[in-house]
């Protein structure tokens, strides 16, 4: 099951961004700028930056999320957002002998599809475990023949075995990761992944991340969400046609 935790963020991100922007237009140093920056003035300055489209100062505030219960399929999508930092559970070092897997809702709601899917997952687990056993035995015997002590040989062999056995693991295999993005990158992430045309799993993740961000700074994320929250839908003939519904969701409900 999807679990998203906001474990860290820039302290007082609104003020950090306001100071960064003011330094572009002031001869004063950071200390003096901070002295005269009340919450009210900070809010007004953030509004001005948003209206001007001056987005580079927003890169000075970042948010770090711990993400669990997502698939390797989602990993392939989220790492396309290159202005971000990722740390992901390694399948080279972590044995997946009884891996958890993600069950898509459309498959879960169809008994026939679910039966096929669960059978495939069971076969993947069995194949992975069989490969680990075969390769572990083979590598251990070879390393011991080369003069390595049995305990050390088994330890080295296990890493080599799971490194190759992972090739049979499915996209459904559950993974965990840490993700850090700055505010500007988060806006882009939400614009693309909160869209109704985004894949269901990463859309659910984006919604949870946005809720957490809004909890820290409603001002910075007041217009965050799919592109249609701020203007016209950019999807052309591929549009979902639900711009008004999406605006209500992201401006009023979240």
What would you say this structure looks like, in words?
The chain has helices at residues 13-22, 30-35, 39-52, 72-78, 105-108, 111-145, 150-165, 183-193, 200-216, 243-253; strands at residues 3-9, 62-71, 85-88, 174-182. With 254 residues, the chain is an alpha+beta fold. It folds into two domains: 3-88 and 174-253, Gyrase A, domain 2 (2-Layer Sandwich); 105-168, no CATH class. A four-stranded antiparallel beta sheet has the order 1-2-4-3. The longest helix has 35 residues, at 111-145.
Q: Which key phrases capture this entry?
A:
254 residues; alpha+beta; Gyrase A, domain 2; 2 domains; 4-stranded antiparallel β-sheet; 4 strands; 12% strand; flat
Which helices and strands occur, and which strands form pairs?
Layout: E1 3-9, H1 13-22, H2 30-35, H3 39-52, E2 62-71, H4 72-78, E3 85-88, H5 105-108, H6 111-145, H7 150-165, E4 174-182, H8 183-193, H9 200-216, H10 243-253
Antiparallel strand pairs: 1-2, 2-4, 3-4
């Amino acid at each position: 099951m999807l679990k998203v935790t906001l474990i860290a963020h820039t302290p007082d991100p609104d003020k950090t961004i306001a100071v960064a922007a003011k330094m572009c237009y002031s001869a004063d140093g950071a200390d003096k700028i901070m002295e005269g920056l009340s919450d009210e003035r900070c809010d007004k300055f953030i509004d001005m930056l948003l209206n001007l489209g001056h987005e580079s100062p927003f890169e000075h505030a970042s948010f770090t999320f711990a993400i669990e219960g997502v698939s390797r399929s989602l990993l392939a999508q989220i790492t396309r957002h290159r202005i971000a930092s990722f740390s992901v559970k390694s399948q080279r070092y972590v044995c997946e002998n009884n891996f958890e897997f993600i069950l898509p809702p459309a498959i879960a709601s169809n008994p026939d599809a679910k039966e096929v899917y669960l059978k495939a997952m069971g076969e993947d687990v069995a194949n992975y475990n069989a490969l680990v056993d075969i390769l572990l035995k083979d590598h251990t015997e070879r390393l011991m023949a080369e003069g390595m002590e049995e305990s050390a040989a088994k330890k080295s062999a296990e890493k080599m075995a799971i490194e190759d056995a992972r090739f049979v693991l499915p996209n459904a295999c559950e993974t965990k990761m840490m993700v850090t993005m700055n505010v500007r990158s988060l806006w882009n992430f939400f614009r693309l992944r909160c869209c109704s045309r985004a894949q269901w799993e990463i859309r659910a993740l984006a919604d949870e991340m946005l809720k957490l961000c809004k909890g820290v700074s409603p001002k910075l994320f007041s217009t965050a969400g799919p592109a249609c929250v701020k203007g016209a839908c950019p999807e052309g003939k591929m549009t979902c046609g639900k711009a008004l519904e999406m605006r209500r969701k992201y401006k009023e409900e979240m």
